[in-house]
Amino acid sequence: xxxxxxxxxxxxxxxxxxxxxxxxxxxxxxxxxxxxxxxxxxxxxxxxxxxxxxxxxxxxxxxxxxxxxxxxxxxxxxxxxxxxxxxxxxxxxxxxxxxxxxxxxxxxxxxxxxxxxxxxx
Length: 121
Hints:
Blueprint (H helix, E strand, L loop, with lengths): L3 E16 L2 E19 L2 E18 L4 E23 L2 E10 L12 E8 L2
Antiparallel strand pairs: 1-2, 2-3, 3-4, 4-5, 5-6
């Protein structure tokens, strides 16, 4: 409808950094589905279910060492945002979302601030 939309998305993030403990690098990948409702002009409310796979350091009590393993992490976001028309059915969006699950191994912090381009079909 003119006020309600749904969508899907994929994400991939690669990062690498060095510290005194050595070099760490990782890839985070996953997908999400969302629903968005425009409640006043170009302001909208949004909910989103996001599932990612991330490297997570895991502590071994027997050896006293950390190992890396992949973990699937669910996130359920709620929030609001604003969209600005770029012409036709193309919009720039700015969204603030809060993960209500707040999984201890989530690679993202709360709240999440996002910007993007939305293209209506």
